[in-house]
């Protein structure tokens, strides 16, 4: 059985703040007190929160997706290249 995904609402409830406040802390889009930010970030870490990139991209109306085309996957080189490309994409906020 899969665990339910942690949401901004879950974090907000645990921190005693609104989901909007959690969003502002995670995206650094509004001044939030240091104490509140620290509490939210601690809860984010404790709950192993991972943002839903698909939902975020739909909301922003952008995909941030890069395609990777290879003429063969039989070569040992292709999986290594794809792994490196995937990590580089993720590090920059893209999907591969």
Question: What would your notes on this structure say?
Answer:
The protein is built from five helices and no strands. The protein has 96 residues and is an all-alpha fold. The protein folds into two domains: 1-51, Orthogonal Bundle (434 Repressor (Amino-terminal Domain)), CATH 1.10.260; 64-96. Helix 1 crosses helix 2 (19-27) and helix 1 (8-15) packs across helix 3. The mean pLDDT is 89.
Concise synopsis of the structure shown:
Helix content is 55%, strand content 0%. It contains five helices and no strands. The radius of gyration is 18 Å and the shape is elongated.
CATH superfamily label of the largest domain: lambda repressor-like DNA-binding domains
What's the structural domain tally? 2
Number of strands: 0
What proportion of the residues form beta strands (DSSP E)? under 5%
**Shape estimate:** elongated
Query: What share of residues is helical?
Result: 55-70%
Q: What would the average pLDDT be, to the nearest integer?
A: 89
* H/E element sequence: HHHHH
CATH fold annotation of the largest domain: 434 Repressor (Amino-terminal Domain)
Main sheet attributes: strand count, strand direction, barrel closure: none
Poorly predicted runs: none
């Amino acid at each position: 059985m899969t665990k339910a995904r942690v949401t901004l609402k879950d974090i907000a409830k645990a921190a005693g703040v609104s989901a909007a406040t959690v969003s502002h802390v995670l995206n650094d889009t509004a001044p939030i007190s240091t104490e509140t930010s620290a509490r939210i970030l601690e809860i984010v870490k404790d709950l192993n929160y991972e943002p839903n990139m698909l939902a975020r991209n739909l909301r922003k109306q952008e995909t941030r997706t890069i395609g990777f085309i290879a003429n063969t996957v039989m070569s040992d080189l292709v999986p290594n290249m794809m792994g490196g490309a995937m990590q580089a994409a993720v590090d920059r906020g893209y999907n591969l």
